[in-house]
Design a protein that fits this description.
The protein has 7 helices and no strands. The chain is an all-alpha fold. It has one domain: Four Helix Bundle (Hemerythrin (Met), subunit A) (Up-down Bundle), CATH 1.20.120. The longest helix has 40 residues.
């Protein structure tokens, strides 16, 4: 293959890369603050007061978020990628192209987006869709642009070839068997790496559903069910505390 036939590196405008580097440094603070702010500022949707339809929408939101979490669990369980940064800068220990990263270049971010989409659907606010969807989609696209710029500098033609054969977002599940052949699912790594983010969104979803349940009781004159949601949130907190103890005490290792 001559130079003209070689795959090209992905390109993004400089402003998008700069924005991605900013978000990469601040996302642990910026993303939760924006999400909570949107929830506070936007009214919950109840499908025009139709509680039955609204509960179906709630269920759809939960299922979307669970699919996103399941994808993250599968990705981390088969092949973890160290791309969390160093000194809040984009950094990678190597170009990972096996496991789910042979099916999508950003499967963890796809999982994140699905979880966010699930929370948006649960709240089901038109204003939240209008404000939140563009912000988070642009945010993740910018972070990916910053990572691609870094990986392009570090790995050049190897990264370009990887990009040419693997989609940026779409997860090609048809090749899952081949991509994970000979690999062992590491559930310990899943617990150690994922317990925090999983607990946060699950507890958050339970709170949103609890708030909506109070709204449904006002619409239907039914009895609220605070105990059910308190049990769910309590179970999430206990699970988080147990995982954190196992990690900090080093009783659970990869």
């Amino acid at each position: 293959m001559n130079a003209s036939q070689a795959p090209a590196l992905p390109w993004s405008p400089d402003w998008l890369v700069r924005y991605g580097n900013f978000l990469f440094k601040t996302r642990d603070a910026v993303f939760p603050v924006i999400l909570v702010g949107l929830l506070v500022m936007t009214p919950m949707g109840t499908m025009g007061g139709d509680v039955s339809k609204s509960r179906l929408v709630d269920l759809a939101g939960v299922l979307i978020a669970v699919i996103g979490q399941a994808l993250r669990v599968a990705v981390i369980g088969y092949r973890y990628i160290v791309r969390g940064g160093r000194n809040r800068e984009v950094y990678a220990e190597g170009l990972v192209s096996t496991g789910f990263f042979a099916l999508s270049r950003n499967p963890l971010y796809v999982g994140n987006i699905l979880i966010l989409a699930g929370l948006f659907v649960i709240w089901n606010s038109t204003l939240m869709y209008l404000l939140g969807v563009p912000f988070f989609l642009l945010g993740y696209r910018a972070i990916v642009a910053a990572e691609e710029a870094y990986l392009g500098r570090q790995y050049g033609s190897e990264f370009a070839a990887y990009c040419a054969r693997v989609p940026r977002w779409w997860v090609r599940l048809g090749g899952l068997g081949t991509a994970t052949a000979g690999m062992t699912f590491n559930w310990r790594r899943v617990v150690l790496k994922e317990y925090g983010s999983a607990a946060y969104w699950m507890a958050g979803a339970a709170v949103l559903l609890w708030l909506k349940d109070w709204r449904y009781t006002a619409l239907t004159s039914s009895e609220p069910r605070p105990m059910a949601f308190a049990v769910v949130i309590g179970a999430v907190v206990v699970g988080w505390a147990a995982a954190r103890y196992l990690k900090k005490s080093k009783r659970l290792r990869e």
